[in-house]
Amino acid sequence: MSRCDSLRLSRLCARMTVRFAVAILCCGSLFALRPLSTQLEDVRHRGVIDVVAIACDGPDSQKDLEQSFAGEITQLWARDLGLQVHYLWARDTSQALRMLQSHEAQLALTRLPAGEEKTRAVRVSRPYMDTHLELVGMGKHLLQPAHLGPITIVVRANSPEAETAALLQAMNPDLHVQRASEWSRTDDLLLTAEQMQDRYVLVDAIDFDSHHTLHPHLQVALDLSQGLHLAWAFPGGDSSLYMQAQSFLARHVHDGSLQRMIALYGPQPHFDERGAIDFRRDMSQRLPQLEPVFKRYADLNHLDWRMLAAIAYQESHWNNQAVSPTGVTGIMMLSASTAADLGVDDRHSTHQSIRAGSDYFRDLVDALPPQIAEPDRTWMALAAYNMGPGHLEDARRLTARLGKNPNLWADVREQLPLLSQPRWYRHLAHGYTPNSRQALAYVSEVRRYYDTLLLAHPDADRLRSVAMR
What we know:
The protein is 51% helix and 14% strand. It is an alpha/beta fold. The chain contains 20 helices and 9 strands.
């Protein structure tokens, strides 16, 4: 090969090398420009979002979570995205956030103080609910944070309560902190305070509110007002899921639906101490004999037996000989006409009365429009049980006329008092009813009994399937 040919070949190879390098760079640029799938796209493709929660109450945590406000609003958001929720469990908040960072989960349910350092490695949504901690015990006197004295505070280990207890201990050298297992049930902790005068439990205010009926002698000795935010946490990096959640929460804040949901799930009026003591006594003495009967007829009608028991307690305090001034009688307090319609020939018969009450409640649930979802479906059926289905339908129509959602109990219950005002009831199909305010109280009372029975007997399907065949 001549020198000229060799030079020409060298130049050709150089040009090919440059072209190859340019091609590689172009391909690299194309790959760099090509959009990667986002977290939002990934979960939509899978149809499932992995949610990590703190398993404070052991193996039954998922049952409790699904009926909590945190569980309901998470499910609502997931349904909005067309997703199923798959729960994972962590011992404490630190482990939950580590699971986010390692991408074992796409969302964590958190309960953290504002500005909590642990959240810097993740994105935390706007709070969807606030709560605070309370120190509860048998003492009737109020305590001061800096003057607690030689008491013992019981907390779950590795919890926000444990961190707050450590701060109180720093201000009170004589104070002792007893750290129970992360898996300790709230009932067990409260029972410790109930049985031992020098023991106090540091507990979430919402948690104590729901358990207070089971422990009526306990009192709030110290209200720690510093806020805890209930919020969603997301992995760092891609913000698509986080932004979608922020948009969802902002929308529900703007239209008022978030506040209405909080009103349904937030703290309810307490039983007075005498009423709570009576209910706990009746759960111990009367319910064991009635429970098989409630379960039998609830199963036949695809109901939660505890809801049936809650209705019966509100009606008669589980007394099959109860009689009202208006003539309704028996454990489900049936009128003579209702009993005849339901084939009851002895209203004092426990079996006949509970069977008829179960059938009637099932009929009320089934008569509601299919677009009413749980738990609203159950609350409306309870109102209809008390005031009659016709008046409930009037309330729903009036709710729609006033621009609210007739399928949400939170909206319908706001209009119930109007059914006793001439301005409104004159234009309604079923006219005046004096029982509209009574129906509000009825639903609230039944719900309190039901919530307490859920805690005392966590063995049946939850309210999500109470009214669903």
